[in-house]
């Protein structure tokens, strides 16, 4: 069995060692132009030349949950695309989003500023019922996030493409349910995959449907958000603030208005990192299952885009 590794911006050696430990008999190497076609590939944003050369490969294992970058390329016909299925990302996403919601709800930024100014000042406690949180996307990550928020007794709404029942969450689905979902939410958490249907979904019209004083947390992809529309709604006061982990251009370009915006909190695409050992274990388990002719979870439907 041959496994090739083609991941932009990723140190290859530890991945090769981990995969080799799982499959001692396999030929495992970093892809080089002109290399023979492998059985499986471990990829992140591979060059088009790699995909063009690997005609006949059985499966491409993406070392992230989002496959938008891969699906934008021309894929070898018949190759299955497999996304990471949690692999340690769901708990990271839950802690990131809960931290952001609680920081906003409890006004910790304002407390920090007043304490730094030497002021021992109380703020009027807010009511959880006044901060319904809407989670867009109830997949592997979104469902975990929604349940974690519900543990803190926030009212939680969830929106997905197909109808879904999740304990403790008020669910909405499809285009028909979208406006009601937005109108029922004051904080909006985006955990959708980036597809032709969801690109630019966070825009002036949709964000304006949130309850006044809304707060946006975008942890999915930068291209979900129309950046100027966010700025306009912050200026108008309809939105109170935003926490953004992902951007249309990454790294965020110097001089971008988000950098110094007083009501936007930024992190550098780090809300849920790919954990190498968990990911290798998951990918190795799936390769072994495919070798045995068994079905695996996490196969992407290219027509659906996720
Ligand atoms: P999943 O594929 O498991 O879940 C996707 C969810 O979105 C599903 O509930 C799906 O609905 C819903 N959905 C898809 N399209 C639509 C639509 N048009 N309208 C309404 N709902 C829709 O993905 P994950 O939870 O694993 O990951 C979500 C995204 O998070 C990734 O695609 C990636 O972009 C991002 N991500 C970001 C990271 C970061 O560090 N910032 C790290 C990891 C992931 P249904 O249930 O009906 O299929
Ligand atoms: C992912 C990511 O999709 O890291 O996994 O963004």
Task: Set out the fold topology.
Elements: E1 2-7, H1 12-22, E2 27-30, E3 40-44, H2 48-53, E4 59-62, H3 68-71, E5 80-82, H4 89-105, H5 108-116, E6 133-136, H6 140-151, E7 156-160, E8 170-173, H7 174-183, E9 187-190, H8 204-208, E10 214-218, H9 227-236, E11 239-244, E12 264-266, H10 276-291
Parallel strand pairs: 1-2, 1-3, 3-4, 4-5, 6-7, 6-9, 7-8, 9-10, 10-11, 11-12
Helix pairs in contact: 1-10, 4-6
The structure holds NADPH dihydro-nicotinamide-adenine-dinucleotide phosphate and oxalic acid (OXD).
Residues 64-66, 274 line the site of oxalic acid.
CATH class division of the largest domain? Alpha Beta
Bound molecules: NADPH dihydro-nicotinamide-adenine-dinucleotide phosphate, oxalic acid
Write down the Rg.
21 Å
Give the helix/strand class.
Answer: alpha/beta
- What characteristic shape results from the CA principal axes? elongated
Total domain modules = 2
Strand order of the largest sheet: 8-7-6-9-10-11-12
Roughly what fraction of the amino acids lie in strands? 15-25%
Mean pLDDT across residues: 98
Uncertain spans: none
CATH architecture of the largest domain: 3-Layer(aba) Sandwich
What is the third-level CATH name, the topology of the largest domain?
A: Rossmann fold
Number of strands: 12
Count of helical stretches: 10
Please describe the biggest sheet, giving its number of strands, its sense, and whether it closes into a barrel: 7 strands, parallel
Report the helical percentage. Answer: 25-40%
Elements, N to C (H/E): EHEEHEHEHHEHEEHEHEHEEH
């Amino acid at each position: 069995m041959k496994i090739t590794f083609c991941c932009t911006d990723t140190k290859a050696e530890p991945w090769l060692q981990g995969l080799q430990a799982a499959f001692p008999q396999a030929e495992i190497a970093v892809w080089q132009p002109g290399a023979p076609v492998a059985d499986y590939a471990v990829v992140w944003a591979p060059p088009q030349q790699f995909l063009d050369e690997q005609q006949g490969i059985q499966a491409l294992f993406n070392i992230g949950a989002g496959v938008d970058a891969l699906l934008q390329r021309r894929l070898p016909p018949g190759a299955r695309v497999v996304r990471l299925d949690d692999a340690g990302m769901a708990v990271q996403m839950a802690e990131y989003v809960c931290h952001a919601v609680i920081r906003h709800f409890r006004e910790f930024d304002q407390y920090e500023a007043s304490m730094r100014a030497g002021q021992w000042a109380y703020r009027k406690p807010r009511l959880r019922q006044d901060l319904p949180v809407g989670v867009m996307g109830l997949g592997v990550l979104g469902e975990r996030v929604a349940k974690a928020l519900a543990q803190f007794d926030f009212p939680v709404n969830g929106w997905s493409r197909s109808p879904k029942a999740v304990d403790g969450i008020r669910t909405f689905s499809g285009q028909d349910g979208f406006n009601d979902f937005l109108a029922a939410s004051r904080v909006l958490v985006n955990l959708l995959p980036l597809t032709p249907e969801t690109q630019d979904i966070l825009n002036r019209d949709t964000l304006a449907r949130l309850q006044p004083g809304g707060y946006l947390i975008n942890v999915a992809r930068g291209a979900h958000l129309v950046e100027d529309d966010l700025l306009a709604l912050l200026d108008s006061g309809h939105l109170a603030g935003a926490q953004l982990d992902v951007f249309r251009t990454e790294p965020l370009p110097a001089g971008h208005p988000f950098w110094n915006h007083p009501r936007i909190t930024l992190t550098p695409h780090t809300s849920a990192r790919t954990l190498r050992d968990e990911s290798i274990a998951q990918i190795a388990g799936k390769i072994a299952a495919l070798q045995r002719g068994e079905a695996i979870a996490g196969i992407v439907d290219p027509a659906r885009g996720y």
